[in-house]
Amino acid sequence: MSTLHTVNKSPFTHGTLASCLSICAQNDGILLLEDGVFGALATAPCADKLTELIESGVKVYALSNDIKARGLQEKLLNNILLTDYTGFVQLSIDHRCVQSWY
User: Fold this and answer.
1) pTM of this structure
2) Residues contacting 9, CB < 8 A, separation 6+
3) Which of 7, 14, 38, 90 has the greatest number of C-beta atoms within 10 Å?
4) pLDDT tens, N- to C-terminus, the chain (102 residues)
5) Where are the alpha helices (DSSP H) in 1-102?
6) 82 vs 15, 22, 27, 31, 43, CA distance in Å?
7) Helices (H) and strands (E) in the chain — how many of each?
8) How far, CA to CA in Å, does 78 sit from each of 28, 50, 90?
């Protein structure tokens, strides 16, 4: 894999996820955390583009503690992979670099 993109801002209030999605390559990964997990919702502004990238092979993860803290478990897009903090560390190791989107 190439780059792990981390997004911590809600796509309902910031354009960071949209910017991230516009440059993601096929072997990249995306980790949604903090308010960025709102990007994993089926109703999110970038849901169609996110689904398109998932179908092309981009892996999209969401931090499970942040999903639970916001009560979003039943509202996620298909194929969003949940991970914990240990998984976050492993994703950072598995990718060549980490790009944080603020």
Assistant:
1) 0.95
2) 16, 17, 34, 35, 36, 101, 102
3) 7
4) 599 999 999 999 999 999 999 999 988 999 999 999 999 999 999 999 999 999 999 999 999 999 999 999 999 999 999 999 999 999 999 999 999 998
5) 16-23, 47-55, 64-69, 85-94
6) 23, 22, 18, 9, 18
7) 4, 5
8) 18, 10, 22
